TrEMBL record:
This is Uncharacterized protein. It comes from the Bacteria.
Length: 60
């Protein structure tokens, strides 16, 4: 059961990172693409980052 939860977390982490990476140009960020992509689960607690993360994912 724990392996399934771990796998699900890894898949969600990778999918969120991939979508952010692909939509990075839509954000207000100009630098730190790799850093911001790798740390997205932690940074999403920040309101400004969350707004840009949503823009990257949804295309707005």
């Amino acid at each position: 059961m724990m392996q399934l939860v771990g796998l699900a977390f890894l898949v969600l982490y990778a999918a969120g990172g991939w979508k952010f990476w692909k939509g990075f140009r839509r954000t207000n960020f100009t630098e730190g693409r790799l850093y911001l992509t790798l740390l997205w689960p932690v940074l999403v607690a920040n309101k400004s980052y969350r707004k840009n993360f949503t823009k990257a994912l949804k295309g707005r």
